[in-house]
Amino acid sequence: MPYNQAPDFLCADTMHPTYSAVQARLLEANRLSPELLAKSLCIIGAHHVDYADIYCQRTAYESWHLEEGIVKSGSFQINQGVGVRAVSGDKTAFAYADSLCIDSINRSARAVRAIGAAGGKVSAKMPSETRGKPVCSASDPIAGLDSAAKVALLNKVEAIAKAADPRIVQVMAGLTCEYDMVYLAPSGRQTRRRHPPDGAPERYRYRQTGRTPRTGQRGRRRTLRLGLFR
């Protein structure tokens, strides 16, 4: 069935902290709204396509690296952008933009709708509300600890590693935090998601009498097994 009618959006619980955070940081900060995204989907629906969606994402990333008890490097960056897709039969069109603004979204919408024949007729509808079950924590791992606490955590990793084996002479520890916000507006339902992966991988060097120093590594992103947050 051709997508020739306005999307009937089902939005998650607007009172939930996840919705509020995504609404403020991802949509409102870029002068976007569910209603504007509905109109952008209608631009695609002006052509005969079977399905369309708009994928908005904001990613904040922070890293700290400690070596020999000293923080040697660190970084912080925020990236955001939008992807638009349209499907017509067995054909799929994609368009991407690093700028998360309504003009970029509408340009992308006009680009992907070309896979469908012109002649659709649509009108924008206001989103309706439904209540969904959150799948991610509402906490922000980057803001959850201040700089002093993050450095203290790395020092604790170093202390635990050295205490585990007296042959360890050098520890290199890293802390990374990544905070993803996603707002998906497909022709049928709008959803939003927050994904807070973090982790503290470590590398170490140990020396044994009469042998060459050796190195090892342990720790995995999003998996902390050392009891650091107890």
UniProtKB/TrEMBL annotation:
It comes from Neisseria meningitidis alpha153. Residues 52-114 form the Metalloprotease TldD/E N-terminal domain. Residues 188-230 are annotated as: Disordered. Residues 196-205 have a biased composition (Basic and acidic residues). GO terms for molecular function: metallopeptidase activity. The keyword Protease applies. GO terms for cellular component: cytosol. The keyword Membrane does not apply. Residues 207-216 have a biased composition (Low complexity). Keywords: Hydrolase, Metalloprotease, Protease. It comes from the Bacteria. GO terms for biological process: proteolysis. It holds the Pfam family PmbA_TldD_1st. InterPro entries: Metalloprtase-TldD/E_N, Peptidase_U62_metallo, TldD/PmbA_N, TldD/PmbA_sf. This is TldD protein. The gene is tldD3. Belongs to the peptidase U62 family.
